């Protein structure tokens, strides 16, 4: 079995959808967004204070119940610089909900340049994570945006491999229907029916985990391809394009 580039966990039944606070349009129109994305923490606080949704916070609280949780933000460097938005979100949510906040013990350890990147680029440049995890601790993951969901899935995989438990996730914005992050059984069955055991074996060999660890959007994205050869070509093309941009990428040869 291949050691995973970034470990993942399969999805439990009824894992909650990612709690979303605002829209991409409102975020992009906010005067503090660009500065916040480039590392200005004051700008990030302004952005989050304006866009954080009280109804979404209530939903997040309902998803968690009375559990003693730790908020953990995706701490990452992107093309524009350090993304301060997740940290600002965790700081403000922690204050409002009286939850503990991880003090950057958990962090992304590689550069992947996922902002506005293609789906195949995102898949072949999986984020990796490091830092201390409290064994037995329940975690809530915080990021500024969920697209294919790979970053949150990988952070969850890292935390659970180290003995923690991820029970919920929240982001400022989402791509279309990306909040439905956990892979549904019908989508998994459809992917397996269309591409058979060969895809399962190939995915395990390349990524080190099974199809059941994909997100709903990743699985649907992959399933659009007509064959395993087409999937392999897309992955190889994504690797080739990403390899010249200074990002951490999996090496996938062309079929």
Could you explain how this protein is built, in words?
The chain has 255 residues and is α/β, with parallel strands linked by helices. The chain folds into 2 domains: 19-174, 3-Layer(aba) Sandwich (Rossmann fold); 185-243, no CATH class. 44% of the residues lie in helices and 14% in strands. The strands form 3 sheets. The chain has a 5-stranded parallel β-sheet, sandwiched between helices. A two-stranded antiparallel sheet has the order 3-4. Helix 3 crosses helix 5 and helix 8 crosses helix 9. The longest helix has 23 residues, at 185-207.
Classify the secondary structure makeup into a structural class.
Answer: alpha/beta
What is the architecture of the largest domain at the second tier of CATH?
A: 3-Layer(aba) Sandwich
What's the pLDDT, averaged over the residues?
A: 90
Biggest sheet: strands side by side, in what order? 1-9-8-2-5
Radius of gyration: 18 Å
According to CATH, the fold-level topology of the largest domain is Rossmann fold
Strand content: 5-15%
How many helix segments?
Answer: 10
What is the approximate shape?
A: globular
User: How many strand elements?
Assistant: 9
Please give the alpha-carbon distance between the first and last residues: 21 Å
CATH class of the largest domain: Alpha Beta
Proportion in helices: 40-55%
